[in-house]
Amino acid sequence: MRCVVANWKMNLTKDEAQAFCEDLLGRMAPESEAEVGIAPPFTLLHQVSDLVRPRGLQVFGQNGHAEAKGAFTGEISMPQLRDAGCSGVLLGHSERRQFFGETDVALAKKVKAAWQWDLLPLLCIGETLEQRDAGQTLDVLAQQLAILAETGPGPLWVAYEPVWAIGTGRRAEAAQVREAHAFIRTELNRHLAGTEYRVPILYGGSVTPESFPELLGIPEVAGGLVGGASLDPRKFAELVKQAG
Ligand code: 13P
């Protein structure tokens, strides 16, 4: 199974989202076997899910709180995401970790909450440039995946997104992606040994239609989590086609 997920981040308005979805769906072959997801901003969740779920696409929240409800101004809960049409939720995106102080402790709670509300967590992990230069990449990935010792097993997708490759146009090299994905697979096998869960590992960071075919050829790369290129329906449809 190959997966392509659009992370729109803090982009698009209602009219732009409408035009995007109509354009994308018009370009998508009905026989595509790729699992396709869109993670819009919260205000667009209802609208986007109404448009794309009938065609089999998944909708993801970009974040979700561990509590089901309460006095948490500015947050959104897992049942609210479900109510808005989501089947999954991005958790631990590096922008959340970097700019909003998201910790592994909080993420373990969020993964459990997602499961409780029947949402598929797409857990994002990855090292900063400083950590890579210091030779800490694999240690960082192991630590970010160690929350699975706390959560226990469950359905999960993982995205490897080296922070230095996000929005920079500097995609990780094939050898770096191969090493990271092989290591993540080993760690997942260890955490999920003896369970039925088989976790697809997506790559994210400056994915484009030009670079995606090579990435898809790397062992353990099950697809892509796409930022910039996912805002152009022509480019995103091309990525879906390459994955299908
Ligand atoms: P870019 O594709 O813009 O590098 O963003 C990647 C990303 O952060 C997806 O979650």
Name a few traits of the molecule.
alpha/beta, TIM Barrel, 11 helices, 15% strand, binds 1,3-dihydroxyacetonephosphate
Q: Which term fits the overall shape? A: globular
Count of separate DSSP helical elements: 11
What's the multimeric state?
single chain
How far do the termini sit from each other? Answer: 9 Å
Query: What's the mean pLDDT score?
Result: 97
Percent helix among the residues? 40-55%
Ligand roster: 1,3-dihydroxyacetonephosphate
The ordered H/E elements are: EHEHEHEHHEHHHEHEHEH
CATH class: Alpha Beta
Strand content: 5-15%
Major sheet description: 8 strands, parallel, barrel
Using the CA coordinates, give the radius of gyration.
Answer: 17 Å
Strand order of the largest sheet: 1-2-3-4-5-6-7-8
Q: What CATH architecture would you give?
A: Alpha-Beta Barrel
The parts where pLDDT drops under 50 for at least 5 residues are none
| The CATH homologous superfamily | Aldolase class I
Tally of structural domains: 1
- What's the count of strands? 8
Given the helix and strand composition, which structural class is it?
Answer: alpha/beta
What is the CATH topology classification name? TIM Barrel
Describe the structure concisely for a colleague.
With 244 residues, the chain is of the alpha/beta class.
Structure description:
The protein has a single domain, classed as Aldolase class I (TIM Barrel, Alpha-Beta Barrel), CATH 3.20.20.70. The longest helix has 18 residues, at 174-191. The protein is 41% helix and 15% strand. Helix 1 (14-27) runs parallel beside helix 2 and helix 7 (137-145) runs parallel beside helix 9 (174-191). It has 244 residues and is α/β, with parallel strands linked by helices. The chain has an 8-stranded parallel barrel, surrounded by 5 helices. It is built from 11 helices and 8 strands. The structure holds 1,3-dihydroxyacetonephosphate. Residues 7, 93, 161, 166-167, 204-207, 225-229 line the site of 1,3-dihydroxyacetonephosphate.
